[in-house]
Write a structure and sequence with these properties.
The protein has about 575 residues and is α/β, with parallel strands linked by helices. It contains 23 helices and 18 strands. Helix 5 packs parallel to helix 6 and helix 13 crosses helix 22. It starts with a helix and ends with a helix.
Length: about 575
């Protein structure tokens, strides 16, 4: 049956190819020629491989009902608005005939199928575009089906998943087609304000008015590998500017690099990834943890630990040690199922900041960290832990997303300072940091920041406007580096050790002055051998933090954070 369906519907694969005398005779219907690599492929292999060429990895377009079958739990799909009246607002000649031909060819009423179903038991509304129907262009009926689906999902408190695939607005409907961009966006705005999740999955191609409306409005935006995604098509751009476009332009990987996509997900992983996202956005029955780590003998012992005697400069050296665990080490040690999201939705994805969602003892949380590299190559990728404006904007985007869905936020601070290069200034480094301070002050969910290494200046503070700030014993938190302090005030950077002492930048100094709430002991300097012990200590105290603050209402959380900084 699958082979017959593949044969009937897969028009994008050539059905004939030139044979030579040396080629074997191939029974018709069993083999096809991949239109991407040109190699003969066995139909059943393609079907079993999620419609991906097993030889070149090229993605074939998937029909709407087939994609629904691949993603949703068996028998769970309930279609909505299967039939809707045809609309020809311009009385465009021949348009109705063209639509009727598309209906006959595809057995679809229009270019999108909508309804609800479940993925691993998680109920969701779902819409799937089908490129066979007039290239899934968006006219009145498509816009109406999407809008009615979103409105119903909002009313029923369901998340929405839309698989976008489109050539853009439907030309035959003129300005009415254009209005669908605003209509679908307005419905999604109401859905967002109701605190409901929208996941947009971009497939090949997603262009034009669909890209400039619902497709790019997801709380989380996923994409299939190598999918063409853009507002104006490549041919239009080339004709307009008279230049050849670079390789990979407007592909999913290009959008990920430029900050517009959270994650590229191979087709065989999509069902699991979507199920995980839905589970992490499920409304909890209570605001407290389902299970809380017990106080252990080790933890009681650590509470009695006194910070060891060492100079401030010794602490500076330890805070910068190449062997110290980085943010992702603590994230993976403390939280379950961390799923990283990318991009600021404006310019790029900054490797100096990692962030996403995870589970902490049954509670969904947002986790964000300033990330240093572990070797030269990784440090270059991470810009040595010095975030650019897009990094701070990515962090803030994830924080605001956490606020929408009521998730606590845990930040790991570890930066020499914000990147001070020319390009950072051009893109508004100061504004990005200021915006984080402004918005974090008013977040309606608990925020915890932990300084795990260097806490350098405003670059660190932009991740530390929190209800509580903790520091590891061998971390530092300062107005700027001791070298910079000595250079500015004493005109001699060699006096950095003396400056470190005067600046009072160690955890002990800041705790004594009431600037932090907790010191995380390091009986031995943090490293691979002590990571498990330190993470265990953090885990117990994070649980206590969440247990405490999740009992507060939103106004209490905000006021607590305000008063914390008001006293300084």
């Amino acid at each position: 049956m699958l082979r017959d369906m593949f044969k009937k519907t897969y028009t994008v694969i050539e059905t004939k190819y030139k044979k030579t005398e040396d080629e074997p005779s191939i029974p018709q219907g069993l083999w096809r020629k991949c239109n991407k690599c040109g190699q003969p492929i066995y139909v059943e292999d393609v079907v079993n491989n999620y419609y991906v060429c097993p030889k070149c990895g090229g993605y074939f377009r998937v029909h709407a009902y087939r994609r629904i079958e691949m993603l949703l739990d068996e028998g769970s799909f309930e279609e909505w608005n299967e039939e809707m009246d045809f609309s020809n607002p311009l009385n465009f000649p021949g348009y109705e005939k063209k639509v009727l031909a598309a209906k006959e060819k595809t057995n679809l009423n229009e270019a999108i199928v909508t309804g609800k179903g479940s993925i691993q038991g998680q109920e969701t509304a779902v819409g799937v575009c089908d490129a066979r129907f007039l290239m899934s262009s968006m006219g009145h009926v498509v816009g109406e089906k999407i809008t009615q689906m979103v409105e119903r999902a909002t009313k029923e408190q369901l998340p929405v998943i839309i698989f976008a695939c489109s050539g853009g607005a439907r030309m035959q409907e003129g300005i009415v087609s254009l209005m669908q961009m605003a209509k679908t966006s307005a419905a999604l705005k109401k859905h967002h304000e109701a605190g409901q999740l929208f996941i947009s999955v971009l497939t090949d191609p997603t262009t034009g008015g669909v890209t400039a409306s619902f497709a790019m409005l997801g709380d989380i935006i996923l994409a299939e590998p190598n999918a063409l995604i853009g507002f104006a098509g490549p041919r239009v751009i080339e004709q307009t500017i008279g230049q050849k476009l670079p390789e990979g332009f407007q592909r999913a990987e290009f959008l990920l690099e430029h900050g517009f996509v959270d994650k590229i997900v191979p087709r065989h992983e999509q069902r699991q990834v979507l199920a995980d996202i839905l589970k992490m956005h499920k409304k909890p029955e209570t605001g407290v943890l389902s299970t809380i780590p017990a106080k252990t003998d080790v933890d009681i012992h650590t509470e009695e630990h006194n910070v060891g005697e060492k100079s401030a400069w010794d602490t500076v050296i330890l805070s910068r040690s190449a062997g110290r665990p980085v943010a992702t080490d603590y994230i993976h040690a403390i939280f379950d199922g961390f799923m990283e999201f990318h991009g600021d939705r404006y310019f790029g994805d900054d490797g100096a900041i990692v962030g996403g969602i995870a589970m902490f003892h049954g509670m969904p949380v947002t986790v964000i960290g300033q990330q240093k590299g572990k070797n030269t190559k990784d440090n270059i990728k991470r810009n040595f832990g010095m975030p650019s404006p897009e990094g701070y904007r990515k962090a803030l985007r994830l924080m605001k997303q956490a606020e929408t869905f009521g998730r606590p936020i845990i930040c790991f601070v570890d930066t020499p300072g914000a990147f001070c290069g020319l390009e950072a200034e051009e893109r508004g480094q100061g504004e990005a940091i200021a915006r984080n301070l402004f918005e974090m002050a008013d977040l309606k969910v608990p925020v915890l920041s932990i300084v795990i290494g260097e806490g350098g200046s405003g670059g660190a503070l932009a991740m530390a406007v929190a209800n509580e700030v903790w520091m590891m014993e061998n971390a530092i938190y300062s107005i700027l580096s001791p070298e910079g302090f000595a250079s500015i005030l004493w005109k001699d950077s060699k006096k950095a050790p003396e400056a470190a002492k005067v600046m009072k930048i160690t955890a002990a100094d800041l705790y004594e002055r009431g600037l932090i709430e907790l010191i995380i002991p390091e009986e031995e300097p943090a490293g691979n051998s002590t990571l498990e012990w330190i993470a265990g200590f953090m885990e117990v105290h994070v649980a206590s933090f969440l247990e405490k603050y999740c009992k507060y209402d939103t106004e209490e959380i905000r006021e607590h954070r305000y008063q914390r900084f008001r006293k300084f």
